[in-house]
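Quick one - inputs below.
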Amino acid sequence: MTAPAIAIEVEGLTKSFDGRQVVRNLSMTVKRGTIYGFLGPNGSGKTTTIRMLCGLLTPDSGRGTCLGYDIRTEADKIKLHVGYMTQRFSLYQDLSVRENLEFIARLYGIPNARGAAERMIGRLGLEGRGEQLAGSLSGGWKQRLALGACTLPEPQLLLLDEPTAGVDPKARREFWAQIHTLAAEGLTVLVSTHYMDEAERCHEIAYIAYGDLLAHGTVDEVIAGSGLVTFTVSGRGDNGGLAQLGRALEAAPGVDMVAPFGTSLHVCGRDRAALEAAIAPYRSDASLAFEPAAPTLEDVFIDLMTRAKDNFQ
Amino acid sequence: MSAADTMPRRRAGFFRRVFAMVVKELLQLRRDRVTLATMVSIPLLQLVLFGYAINTTPRFLPTAVLMQESSDVGRSIIAALQATRYFKVTRILHSKEEFDRVLATGEALFAVEIPAGFERALRRGEMPALLIAADATDPVATGSALGALDKLVATALMHSRAIPEATTPAFEIRQHRRYNPAGVTQLNIVPGLLGTILTMTMLIFTALSVTRETERGTMESLLALPISPLEIMLGKILPYILIGAFQACLILTAGVLLFDVPIIGSLRLLALLTTLFIATNLAIGYTFSTIAQNQLQAVQMTMMFFLPNILMSGFMFPFSGMPRWAQWIGECLPLTHFVRIVRAVILKGATFTDLKVEAAALAGLMLVAMTIAVTRFRRTLD
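Output:
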């Protein structure tokens, strides 16, 4: 089979649990060889979507293909070419690193499973730990092993569900370096995350909240598409004053969001004129510095989430 | 500093900590509906079931009759046998070979032979002998019926005008306790224990296997891997067959060395049918595993299945003593068939031909369990 240019294409996916819609009418397209970031708050439907993509959940309605296979009827074929890394560590804790890898290699019919496992141990930098029980590895190593287990059968698509939750910054950076290496080799990666810095490492992102896909595109496109106007306020006075200012601004009309960032505040609004009117009384204060700034991805997401919540309730 | 910080924090007292734990446990128990339901239903169900089913002085035991002559005397003896309510004639035999076979296969617990020339000998006062052979593998089942035979001699011919009243008994009953002539309990219990112990260990091995994957979270990645439910099931059952075989060897060796149980039949046949029995139990345990939501429920289901296996299989109490409905339940339990198999092979030297019905029943139960398990196994997380 020649690889089509599209890895994932789904339309109108909907899934309910106990009468509650967890994913609503979700459509998305992921091009081959890209790293696609899947962002959204807890309980927004990211895991459910990923599980529908690899055939672990059946959508209530909607259709789609994953690597050209129908997600409803060809789950068996999808499983052969997709590596799925679960949110919770789901390798056998009472098997050693090597035994876990060998198990997977055998299931995929890889010749010389033992050799394949040993090679992967080397690639993961786990030499000397092959006989250690997977359950006794630290969080960062567990995550590395889980990724290794997913990539062992050389899949065409990786589905990673919050792979870096609870992992230290250095391990996260190494993890992402590896993801980029894999993508450069032609692998498609769909990765869900909470971290904004990780979102910025993706080629494309999608933001999902309360089951709805709210925004998608490159990071710059998503920020530009938000229509948010942002000012940063840095205080020369003490931080107590800045917190007080934050509370006052939050109540002011035209201000949609105020968020403290270290010694400064991010003040955002969708209407430039209204926002400027709101901050005007404080701009004369010599101890405060107002500067126009580009909204950060986080600003955009919090804003999207707040608006989605308003619609949701 | 707020007021809360300045307040001295003390550990709660012993009883309050115990109380906190008790409340937490009760709350968790309340959420587990299945456990709650089984807590009420298991004791009630089993009490009623076993209360009505178990009978240690069984009546109406299956009896086969070989009439070497057709005479009124013979018929009135058979009538008297049935009148004791311990015997129930289920089959009329036509040859000596059949006589031996019904006992070997367990089709009948007793076989009665009225020899040729019995009536004539009786009329002449020659005290002819009547042969009653009993399958004594289970002394409990046949004991009370054999005890009732003494009275039979006195009453059997009371109404038969053909025979002159005599002060001494007119005939003799020759009892023949086959397979376990001395009525040694161990000879009966040890082979049965082989089945009971295997049932318990095999069920629990596989009963936990799927729920354990679910509880530990490994099920999610297992489902994402290219492996089918049938392959998962076979992969989980096969290793335990080896363990079961090892256990069976251990029990049999101990039975021979410690309890002097003779193994009369073919060891190869015993090994073959024991393996089948082990696989059947593993398949049933695996089925529980696909139905239970957690390991606790799986263990409860196992216990719920284990108890009738012990009480209604004929291992502990005579199978023929149970009412018909209980016997039908018993026929659905693998241990019932295995107890018959193991007693027949070890004590009676039965062959495969004698046991093909029991073997087919075990295989049938295994296939039913496997079919349920494979269809019940959820391939998705829906």
